[in-house]
Amino acid sequence: MHRLIGAGAALCVLALSTQPGLAAESKECSAVRMAEPGWNDLAFTTGIANVLLQALGYQPQSQVLGINVIYEGMKNNDLDLFLGYWDPAMVTYYEPYKKDGSVENVRVNLEGAKYTFAVPTYVWEAGVKDFSDLHKFADKFGKKMYGIEPGSNQLMMDAIADPSLDLGGWQVVESSEAGMLSEVGYEIKEKQFIVFQGWAPHPMNTMYDFKYLTGGDKFYGPNFGAATVTTQVRKGYLQQCPNVAQLLKNLAFDVDFENVGMGYLINDGMKPEEAGLKAITLNKDRLDAWLAGVTTFEGKPGLAAVKEKLGL
User: Fold this and answer.
1) Which residues lie below 8 Å from residue 161, measured CB to CB, with a gap of 6+?
2) CATH number of the structural domain spanning residue 299
3) How many whole angstroms separate alpha carbon 169 and alpha carbon 191?
4) 34, 72, 77, 113: least CB-packed within 10 angstroms?
5) Which positions carry the signal peptide feature in this UniProt record (predicted)?
């Protein structure tokens, strides 16, 4: 999960009816204004939405913006859609817009996200299954835990500072996501002990054999720092653009799917739309659910149009 807080996207679509009286609405809904904060999970899912909207005849636009800017954009009618409200990580960001009704939830598009301490499976099998087990193997860990960028590891530091865990003298090694994972890969190859910041969705879950630790509820929340991701829109958007609204109500993902899709970005260097297209091509069975009741911008059956446009 991590910075996984969030992501953004905005979409617009034409009404299901093709009556001439709705022409003005169709024009307004043709441009779909989305945004995301530059996090790989949200870049990937926004890429999926981009590919689908283009194939349906819309003109989607996606920008990389800060979380606050995304919410202000939806409130001020400069953006339509955001695919990345991480709950509970982004509760404080969303609260003012929830309170004034300027941003509305559409649906949870991802369940099963998590964010907490992790160790290689062989370390877990050796007896490190819970936060409270770490101190027992302090020497093997070198009293170190590995985090990501400075400023993003406060929960690790809070755990070290908690007297109940007996982690006095431990330190957090801060570097970057790539730096941390490079160290994880090296230590696993050497069969050494390492505890690090893990989250899902992320390709690390398919790259390495590791387990998440229990006992971190006080810091990360229950169920391994469990989180959901919700699609949000500006106030009134669902009513103004009901066809895109139907797509948004259908569009949902799962952790395994995103783990692989994010790998296209991180490991293969693909752009979000390229990754989205590859994921759709390899998982075309998902289109039936995603496009149920959805038409093209011109009012034609959406599923057939998308398959034809993408050569599926």
Assistant:
1) none
2) 3.40.190.10
3) 24
4) 77
5) 1-23
